[in-house]
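Dear all,

This email documents one entry for the complex benchmark we are building for the journal club exercise. For each entry we list the sequence lines for every component of the assembly. Then comes the predicted three-dimensional structure of the complex as a token string, followed by one or two observations. Please use this as the template for your own entries, and keep the labels exactly as they appear.
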Amino acid sequence: MSKTQDYIVERLGIGEVLAHARNKTVPKHEYSFWYYWGGISLFCFLVQLVSGILLLLYYRPGPEAYDSVRQITYETHFGWLIRSVHNWSASLFLASVFIHMFSVFFMKAYRSPREFGWFTGLGLLGIGMLFGFSGYLLPMDTLAYFATKVGLDIPSSIPIVGPPIANLIRGGLEVGEFTVQRFFTLHAVILPLLFLPLLGLHLWLVQKHGNAVPPGEETKPVAERKSIPFFPNFVAKDLAMWLITLNVIALLAALFPWQLGEMSDPLGSAPVGIHPEWYFMSQFQTLKVFGKLFPGYAGEALGMTLFTVGIALWALIPFYDIRGAASSRAKKATYFGIAVITFTIVMTVWGYLSV
Amino acid sequence: MSKKETAAAAGTTADEFEDEEAREFSRRGFLKIAVGGAGVAYAGAIGYPIYRYLSTPVEKSAELAAVKEVVLPNADKLLKGSALMFKFGVRPSLLIHHADDSWIALSAVCTHMGCTVAFNPATAQIECHCHGGKYDAKTGENISGPPPKPLKKFDITVGQGSVTVRRA
């Protein structure tokens, strides 16, 4: 090692970090593949950060929002690519977070001492979906306009406090330039400020507790369990996954660039076959089905209650499926997970078939 | 290359492949170049679009700056002893109608540190308020203070109903 390297390594304490990384191992078993999805989510988030900062250089919230996105998409060199990368990477981020969440669920990695990894992860997913919802309005084309109009109808349906809350979020009684300004502030300032520290905590907890192993692996004696060094072996594989993800994003963005619809018209009616992004599709379809089964307010209220209860049960699973509790609880938790994933997939597919 | 040298070069290559350690080294060398090359290709594929994306307004501004001629409508009615600020492309510029009925068009960008200069009708001088530079308003010559060079002069034609300013 050169003198300059020594100089820097000593002063920054890189030695300690490397020593920690060298001692760290990652379990190796038949489900090890699922360990990559947290890293893939992180990579997508980094892509969002970089492409989002680039979009900030030209995007203008407020009355000029549509025109500035038109300029980015059709006039600025490679603006279409940056915007398209931002949109595709948003979808891939949520997709990989969902995969990460379900793999954590079925490996029962939320069990002690990793409960807070589960809670912070759910928090990150929630903020991620708010990122998606708020970012969707920013181009102010017809689709963006109606997605927000419908989306804000959900908080308005909460009795008494709902409408004033929705009006505050909207900045008025109708979606307009103030809504864009507010959503922009949410998307580019408030949500990142909430997301980044929570992400820091989530990553720290992974360092602190290490990777969980699935229950089948846990029953094996320690001597029989296999592992690989975190550095450089796992990091190299992780980076390979990042490279694949980068290529997938680049291909999707280049082959299927996002277009900009007509400018939103407050007097125009909703286009035929309008539907939300895939990650809101199952909720959208559920509300639609409930609305048909129970006409009037009852349907929406019932749908919202179902979601609230479902999400609460999902979040509290670490307190039910405790390590060492009766094995029937572990089984019930797994069935619950299968039910949730089946419901989500069926509703999403049904939603796409009925638009 | 002489025959002897060719033989020698061929010899080294053969030796390299016989020697296991050297072969390992050449494989490692190949991998280094391949990975490095791929890294450079990725950096280029990501960096080039970002560079062009960032430079879009610079290019537009450069296009605007490349104008050869600017027509100033009604500038011929400028009163004697007064001046008019206008943009030549993207740069602020100065059209002066002197008391003796002579005309001059100059760049208004101070040659010292790029501040925008002003015509002072009282002294008939051009002054820069940033660092106190002074120019002769008849010629654009730097006469006192820090400016190292005279202001850039344009060719002008005073016509009926307009003044045309051209790059000199």
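Observations: The beta strands of chain A are 25-28, 226-229. The interface with chain B takes residues 54, 57, 75-79, 81-82, 246, 250 of chain A (CB under 8 Å).
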